[in-house]
Amino acid sequence: MSGIATGANKGFIVTKRPLVKSARKWYLAKGATESKKLPGRRVKVIRAVVRETVGYAPYERRIIEILKGGGSNPQKKAWRFAKQRLGTHIRAKKKVAEMERVASAAPKKKKTTEKKGK
Q: What pTM, to 2 d.p., does this model score?
């Protein structure tokens, strides 16, 4: 017996439709949602221009200060601070890694500009 609200064959009576096999969409392909694509050339240039124009957010500058400050385990302090601001551990680790690159690149950039000035 079907068409009843409860029981083994509960629910509205419908006719079964045959499944049509269609081509899978590229965005449903295995791994597409798991692995994010890397930004293209255009996006990289735009982000670089924006970063150069606007600079760093206050919390990013503070992360750089924490990393430069030293003390006992500055990276851990930076991770903790970044996690507080960004919400997740993974985002925090990524941001701290980015700020480490920035902090280490800053003295190199300074040296190259001094050499050009001489």
A: 0.60
User: Looking at the domain 57-118, which fold is it?
Assistant: Arc Repressor Mutant, subunit A (1.10.10)
Interatomic CA distance for residues 57 and 82, integer angstroms:
12
- pLDDT by residue for the chain (118 residues), tens only, comes to 567 888 888 888 888 888 777 666 655 555 554 556 777 889 999 999 999 999 999 999 999 999 998 788 999 999 999 999 999 999 999 999 999 999 998 777 777 777 766 6
Cα(29)–Cα(20) distance, rounded to whole angstroms?
18
> CA angle 12-17-24, nearest 5°?
125
The number of C-alpha atoms within 13 Å of 21 and in the hemisphere containing its C-beta is 0
In the chain, the N- to C-terminal Cα span, in Å, equals 93
